[in-house]
Amino acid sequence: MLKQNDKITYTAQSYSNAETVGVVDGYTVFVAGMIVGETATVKVTYVKKNVAYADVVEILQPSQARVAPPCKYYGKCGGCSLMHMSYSEQLKFKTNKVANNLKKLAKLDVNVLPCVPSTLTLGYRNKLSLPVAGRVGNAKIGMYQKGSHLVVNMDDCLLGDKWSQQLTAIFREYLNQNNIPPYNEKNFTGAVRHLVARYVDSQLLVTIVSNGEYTYDLKPLVGKLQKVFPKFGLFVNVNTYKNNVILGKTTRHVYGINQIEGQHFGVKFCLKPDSFFQVNNGVKDTIYQKAKELLNVANTDVLFDCFSGIGILTNALASKDYQTYALEIVPSAVDDANKMKQLNNAPNVTNICGDVNVELPKLTQEHAGKTITMVVDPPRKGLGENICNTILQADVDNIVYISCDSATLARDLSMLSTKYNIAYVEPYDMFPNTDNVETLVWLTK
Fold it and tell me: Is residue 1 part of a domain?
């Protein structure tokens, strides 16, 4: 019988998300930080019925795929869970993760292509959201420890590039030198909750998430940023909610540029601090290219882009050969999408502000008899039962589903597959060194 603090010999037999799974004395044991096939001495941390969790004490038989993690915070910070694996093993892990979720959660035994690698495995993130904690004069900025809300004070996150290291150092120095109190989430006191930043094409947007109105002098911060970043914008976002949501509803521009302007995949865009934009520029363009190819294969007459946001994917997939409709429920995002339509001179694009459940049936009825392709790129929570039912009733011909969570993807595909064939499944490594994976799926009626 296993008990807490027992030390046992454990062999990793399979993966479950970022953890390995093995069986010891009739218990299913989950252990993070290992590779399938490895044997280790592990210490049991939790036991309930026939399930146990344990931490590695010593690797007894290491895998050839094991590497030394390059990050000094690995094991403390909860951000990177796969840094002990070679990159080829990470890709294999992610391919298996998608296949296993589809099989176990949706009972779908489909062919999953090998995970497409990222050109960059470090320094690839164009956005970071870092919690701020600590005390006056000793601010901690970094990532949360795994399974906790304790902030690991970091001066260099390897997933960001040099810009993020420089920004974190500048902001920590600004807080400490000006005696600005970090946020304390236990009693909801302090001034600064998060540092949020995006860096694209040498342009930086910095957002201070403030616990109420920000009353501290920002001139010292502006002065420090000016010395390092020629083109930056500074914002303050107010968030007084007692929850884990990063951004509040109100953001004000303080200094510098008010948006990032650029062109990727042939699409001109403008990004505000809260605009959705994929965090890995290279993988983003690779996914968009594949989606475009699938639209051509599907002989699309009309394209519906749902959850279209500010319209970057919409304009990337739009064509003079078919009419494109973009559906988005957030009015400010639709306003930005209309500006992007003008910026890209896209007369075949129509942006609609509304609920997919309401607007999709209208559009399918209006374009009855045409070959309709629908693109969905929902948030992590996926589509859900209501929208899946709306899609099934709308009877579109093809669906291109871009997912950032293969578990909610599996749930949605279990419903959609009652009417559609899953013709193509390909994972993409949008998030190297983490257990997250982006997946593109093509469904045909």
Answer: no
Rounded Cα distance, 269 and 354, in Å: 22
For residues 321 and 412, state if they share a domain.
Answer: yes
Cα–Cα distance for residue pair 256/234, rounded to 1 Å: 6
Strands (E) across 35-170 are located at 39-48, 51-61, 127-135, 138-144, 151-153
Residue 112: domain span? 94-119+274-444
Each residue's pLDDT tens digit, 146-171: 878 899 999 889 999 999 999 999 99
- Helices 87-106 and 406-416, packing angle to 10 deg: 40
Q: Which helix (H) or strand (E) holds 286?
A: helix 281-297
The answer to whether 286 and 116 are in contact (CB under 8 A) is yes
Q: Which residues contact 383 (CB under 8 A, 6 or more apart)?
A: 376, 391, 408, 412
Cα–Cα distance between 185 and 267 in angstroms, integer? 41
pLDDT digits (tens, 9 = 90+) for 203-243: 999 999 999 999 999 999 999 999 999 999 999 999 999 98
Assign residue 179 the CATH number of its domain: 2.40.50.1070
Rounded Cα distance between 407 and 396, Å, is 24
Same domain, 278 and 191: no
Q: Which two tokens stand for residue 130?
A: 């870092």
Q: Are residues 52 and 193 in the same domain?
A: no
Given 157, 306, 388, 404, the catalytic residue? 404
Determine, yes or no, domain membership for 344.
yes
Residue 404 a catalytic site member: yes
Distances (CA, A) of 363 to 132, 181, 327, 375, 399: 46, 52, 10, 14, 15
User: What span, in angstroms and rounded, lies between the C-alpha atoms of 377 and 83?
Assistant: 28
Other beta carbons within 10 angstroms of residue 443's beta carbon come to 22
The structure tokens listed for 419 are: 């009417």
